[in-house]
Design goal:
The protein is of the alpha+beta class. Helix content is about 30%, strand content about 35%. The protein has helices at about 10-15, 20-35, and strands spanning about 5, 40-45, 50-55, 60-65, 70-75. A five-stranded mixed sheet has the order 1-5-4-3-2. The chain starts with a strand and ends in a 6-residue tail after the last strand. The mean pLDDT is about 90.
């Protein structure tokens, strides 16, 4: 299982979206435990140096990944996360 590290920006966004935060954290933990469970919801972002995005309903989680760490950079609604 990979360790999950949240940036300050991601933690602030999770606090703002408290009603969805639990589901978002669960999906991130599922991916950290077994990436194959969320394979359909994870895609490489173009032009963003190795960043990936995880789809959780209408929310997106932007993160980077190494062999043992998932670094969550941003969390937000689909329409505003990529700007």
């Amino acid at each position: 299982m990979k360790a999950v590290i949240y940036s300050k920006r991601a933690l602030r966004a999770l606090r703002q979206h408290g009603n969805r935060a639990k589901l978002i954290r669960e999906k991130i933990e599922q991916y950290a435990h077994d990436p194959a469970t969320q394979a359909n919801n994870v895609k490489q972002l173009t032009g963003n140096d190795g960043a990936l995005r995880l789809r959780v309903g209408d929310f997106r989680v932007v993160f980077t990944e190494t062999d043992d760490i998932i670094n969550v950079l941003e969390v937000g609604p689909r329409g505003s996360i990529y700007t």
